[in-house]
Amino acid sequence: MSDTDVYREAIAHFATGVTVVTTVTEDGRAGMTASAVASVSLDPILLLVCVSNRIPTHRALEQSRRFAVSVLREGQEGIARTFATPSPDKFDGVALDPGQELPVLAGAAAWFVCDVHERFPGGDHSIFIGEVRACGARHGARPLVYFRREFGTIEDPERELTRNLAAWSMGI
């Protein structure tokens, strides 16, 4: 196994949230699925996204100098796959939040609108640090997670208990 293969196998065991990073330029909208997103600072409020140097979204982020991050929720696996696959229009048929200046996906568990604060090289990726200009969350939404190359969610213990009690009371 090459070092890259070993690394890919090991990093697949790191459970992460699933997001879609989007922006708009004069040429139109661009977006990609991303798991390399993290909070950086509270003062100022910063978050980072890592973007491959080889994809159109990278060029679009360099041009627009702003981006949105939509944190996907349980049930949005199809959107994650759409934005992870090259396509002439990844936004075709995808509902957007009409109240946002950048493309924020409708129904997302949370969202952030950022201005690019800094950009750093990171091998075959760039690390874009965004200053958060606006954000919000949908309370009660369960996040979509990615673990060992599969999508899943975090089980809510109260919901699971309620489901088990209901099954028990029905004799299942």
Short structural summary:
By secondary structure, this protein is α+β, with helices and mostly antiparallel strands. Helices cover 23% and strands 41% of the residues.
Q: What would you say this structure looks like, in words?
A:
The chain is α+β, with helices and mostly antiparallel strands and 172 residues long. 23% of the residues lie in helices and 41% in strands. The protein has one domain (3-169): Electron Transport, Fmn-binding Protein, Chain A (Pnp Oxidase, Chain A, Roll), CATH 2.30.110. The chain contains 4 helices and 10 strands; from the N terminus they run αβββββαβαββββα. The longest helix is centred in the C-terminal third of the chain and has 13 residues, at 157-169. It is globular and about 60 Å long.
Features:
10 strands; 7-stranded antiparallel β-sheet; Pnp Oxidase, Chain A; alpha+beta; globular
Based on the structure, what is the oligomeric state of the protein chains? single chain
Average per-residue pLDDT, rounded, comes to: 90
Low-confidence stretches: none
Number of domains: 1
Instruction: Note the beta-strand portion.
Output: 35-45%
